[in-house]
Design goal:
The complex is a heterodimer of chains A (414) and B (182). Chain A contains five helices and 21 strands. By secondary structure, chain A is an alpha+beta fold. Chain B has 182 residues and is an all-alpha fold. In chain B, α1 runs antiparallel to α2 and α6 crosses α7. The chains are: A alpha+beta (414), B mainly alpha (182).
């Protein structure tokens, strides 16, 4: 053991011993385990009920609509007009047919064929929320939940990812509001014996449910959806593929519109709509006190306009600056926007505990998409150049994934 | 707790039927291990309340399997659950911080408060490493496990543990040298 290892062990022990859990912690842990157990029992006992409900719903759908298993959007209590066309009516991208786009030599494992573009039948005015490969829609006033207990006065609280914190003293089911949780479904999760049904062309498996609570497993998109509360049912009908999933799906390369132009930066050339302004940014001076603007204004976040951001900064992003989560507040759900960031810096968007893959190859470039499902469904790519350098590319797509897919397939070495 | 899966001597085993001598007692499991697990989580995530939540959730999610007597080493199982949940917490925080950075210029009050009095540069640098490396380092140098024990704990080949530890130490060394230069 060298000096560094000794120092590390010493500091780790000293730092950990600063933590003296309160005397009541064992009792709180015990209560949490008991609550979790009670909830498990409720869920398990509800499976037969859900089977009956789904069977009845399927029967109604078959009789009422002349076949098919897709639930009717009109089943949503508040469904008015349909905001977007159903996925089955949207055209697939045109084949490349010798264009300069090239084609992917391999596609991600979750989709072997190019999916139809488009989104779910969503109640007018509902806002799409992307999480990895899945997109759902929520009514206005919905919030992205913090780690605090859900606010019962908020109509819909959406949790993105499993919530490891803030679970101690919350009621099992908040009164009033609808709570939705989207989290990754571990690969290989068994759906054996679970009732299956199809929503927006996507096969789902009902893990448990009751009239007001449901958990759907969607292995094809790698996501698990839980919803409870009065809007749980209409919410579940909005589930569809996210722009990220559409962009990364296998299949033929999309056609490159003539109106697009190419931008070259950091050893990469990429085609983007000509209407997107090109902006230069730098993350120099980044520290825990000042986050680098590698996505100035939020390239795919709230309120930003479509733009191409070329980030020449060289400072590492400090993703691990201390920031206690319990202090953060709920954030309103806001629609994503189109955009592109190219960051050849040493860390940039690639920092943090993000896993990548499966990688694809386009025009000889190895491209590894981040697996962490980020908010707004950004497509974060780690691109391996021929010189061994890693470049970060972030693509935002507010609509169907068609734009992100076209940008992705236009990537070339420069 | 060592006797959780001890087979009763002299009892014949039918195929696929394990005989469990003693089911673990939840209160004892909590009493015996919660402090070290909270400290383990705290080192990984740097937030005490989050560490307590992570540990509580690890107990809750592992308890069905533990109660069924299907776990050989409860502490190892809990430790792994804590590390996995701490990694999830880090990923979630990464996303949250990115959103915060879009909306804020300058540090949040929480950032400023947490940064005060922090002199353990190695621990802070450790938290900037990728989660798989953090897991190896905390098991090796906080839990004082050997490389072989760490590999078994994480279900990894020994070589992977060695390489992750080496990369982590290299990164920490570079970080310290960078601090010294700066």
């Amino acid at each position: 053991m060298d000096d560094l290892e000794r120092d590390l062990a010493t500091q780790l022990h000293r730092r950990s011993e600063e933590v003296a859990p309160g005397e009541d912690l064992p009792a709180r842990i015990r209560a949490h385990v008991d609550r979790h157990q009670r909830r498990r029992r409720v869920m398990q006992s509800a499976v037969p009920t859900l089977c009956l409900l789904i069977g009845a719903a399927t029967f109604v759908a078959v009789v009422g609509h002349g076949g098919g298993t897709r639930p009717s959007p009109s089943a949503a209590p508040s469904a008015g007009s349909v905001g977007r066309a159903p996925s089955t009516t949207r055209p697939s991208p045109a084949p490349t047919s010798g264009s300069s786009n090239g084609a992917a030599s391999a596609g991600p494992a979750f989709a072997a064929q190019t999916p139809a573009f488009g989104q779910s039948q969503t109640t007018a005015g509902w806002v799409p929320v992307d999480y990895g490969n899945v997109q759902v829609s929520v009514p206005p006033g919905a919030v992205i939940g913090s780690n605090a207990c859900p606010d019962p006065s908020v109509p819909v609280t959406v949790h993105l990812g499993r919530q490891p914190t803030g679970v101690f003293n919350c009621p099992l089911e908040p009164a009033g509001g609808t709570t939705v949780t989207l989290e990754s479904l571990p690969a290989g999760t068994s759906t054996s014996g679970l009732p299956a049904h199809t929503v927006n062309g996507i096969k789902e498996f009902s893990n448990f449910g009751s009239p007001a609570t449901a958990e759907e497993l969607v292995p094809s998109l790698g996501v698990e959806v839980q919803a409870s509360g009065p809007l749980a049912s209409p919410f579940l009908l909005t589930l569809t593929r996210s722009p990220r999933a559409v962009a990364l799906a296998g299949g033929q390369a999309p056609h490159l519109p003539r109106s697009w132009h190419r931008v070259t930066f950091g050893g990469l050339s990429v085609a983007v709509p000509a209407t997107w302004p090109v902006q230069h940014a730098t993350d120099e001076g980044a520290s825990c006190e000042r986050q680098p603007p590698w996505e100035p204004g939020g390239v795919t976040g709230a309120g930003s306009r479509p733009a191409v951001i070329l980030d020449a900064g060289q400072s590492p992003l400090p993703p691990s600056c201390p920031a206690p989560l319990p202090a953060e507040a709920d954030q309103p759900v806001e629609p994503a926007t189109d955009g592109l960031v190219i960051d050849p810096g040493p860390i940039g968007p690639l920092s943090g505990a993000i896993s990548y893959g499966p990688c694809i190859s386009i025009a000889g470039i190895r491209i590894c998409p981040a697996n962490d499902p980020g908010r707004y469904g950004e497509l974060i790519l780690r691109i391996h150049t021929t010189g061994g350098k890693k470049i970060a590319v972030v693509i935002g797509d507010a609509v169907s994934g068609e734009t992100a897919r076209t940008i992705l397939y236009s990537l070339r070495s420069a | 707790m060592d006797a959780v899966l001890t087979l009763r001597a002299g009892r014949p085993l039918a195929d696929h039927h394990w005989v469990v001598a003693d089911r673990p007692d939840l209160d004892a499991l909590i009493r015996d291990h919660h402090v070290r697990l909270v400290r383990l989580a705290f080192v990984c995530c740097g937030d005490r309340s989050a560490a307590e939540d992570i540990v509580a959730d690890a107990y809750a999610r592992t308890w069905p399997r533990l109660a069924a007597g299907r776990v050989d080493e409860p502490l190892a199982y809990l430790r792994r659950a804590v590390l996995n949940r701490a990694s999830s917490w880090r990923r979630h925080r990464f996303v949250v911080r990115r959103e915060e950075s879009r909306r804020r210029v300058g540090p949040s009050p929480e950032d400023a408060a947490t940064n005060l009095g922090d002199h353990d540069r190695l621990v802070e640098a450790l938290r900037r490493l990728p989660a798989p490396q953090v897991q190896v380092v905390v098991l090796r140098y906080l839990e004082d496990l050997s490389e072989a024990e760490t590999a078994r704990q994480l279900g990894l080949p020994l070589g992977t543990v060695k390489s992750r530890a080496a990369r982590a130490l290299d990164a920490l060394r570079r970080e310290l040298e960078g601090d010294a230069d700066g």
